[in-house]
Give the backbone structure.
Amino acid sequence: MRVKHFLQFKDLTREEFEYLFQRTRWIKEKFKRYEPYHPLFDRTLVMIFEKASTRTRLSFEAGMHQLGGSAIYLNTRDSQLGRGEPVEDAAQVISRMSDLVMIRTFEQAIIERFAAYSRVPVINGLTNEYHPCQILADIYTFIEHRGSIQGKTVAWIGDSNNVCNTWLQAAEVLDFNVHVSTPPGYEVEPERAGLYGHAHYEEFEDPMEAARGADLVTTDVWTSMGFEAENEERMRAFADWQVDVEMMKVAAKDALFMHCLPAHRGEEVAAEVIDGPQSVVWDEAENRLHTQKALMEYLLLGKVQA
Ligand code: CP
Ligand code: NVA
């Protein structure tokens, strides 16, 4: 049987996401009632980090423990992964000793190569190109606050990075629209974003126009991990792409604000917005835990009855 991976958002279908959202709700409610639930008893998750993390590590590690399993953390500094062992060899070995693997790395090609040689499901915990677990949590958070995202408009302000690419893929899978505004030279690259077409997003030169009427306004850091050498140039290029109070005013009256975090107040977002009443960033961060528990359960056990 073919192993099911979650390497990019479009690896799962709309019907599978609908199941995951419903399952997340059940798992979250049970957790909030302090009721133990251990469907992954004795299972082991290996987490490989080639970049820093707070939320991703914590949510996967805590989530696996809460589901009855255990999690092992590896990083490039103190494993053989940083000393040139081929990814394919690492995949063969790691997947013989574990049930599930989560990887945060640089190029998407690395995780694809790992998955091709893995006996167990592989989850993308962020690559230069994609961050599917983040958007899974973001959309679940939107649904909790506003109901279905189908037909809604999401404004993406800033860099066409891994998080932006994943929003664009999600729009195709779940049938909503993204209004994107990036500085010149940082536009969406449809092929890199892994898009089927142009039907679910529109590009705007003016970030205010992208935000106009949007149901959700979202952004991310101007410089992603791995791109630090470009930081000074990016600071200059992105100066007008800050989500501020004026921008939230042109969005829909009940628009939400999201940010995957970590955030830089005064750069991509004004403090008044991220700390203001429309911001749901703490729910968004918490939902990484609940949605990934549903994801891990699904990848290992398939659909289970509540
Ligand atoms: N949003 C997110 O992935 O956060 P971390 O980098 O802290 O994991
Ligand atoms: N785009 C950011 C997201 C961090 C969670 C990065 O890749 O650094």
Observations:
- Residues 281-301 form the longest helix (21 residues).
- The beta strands are 44-49, 70-75, 100-104, 122-124, 153-157, 177-181, 201-203, 216-219, 256-259.
- The chain has two domains: 9-131+288-301, 134-284.
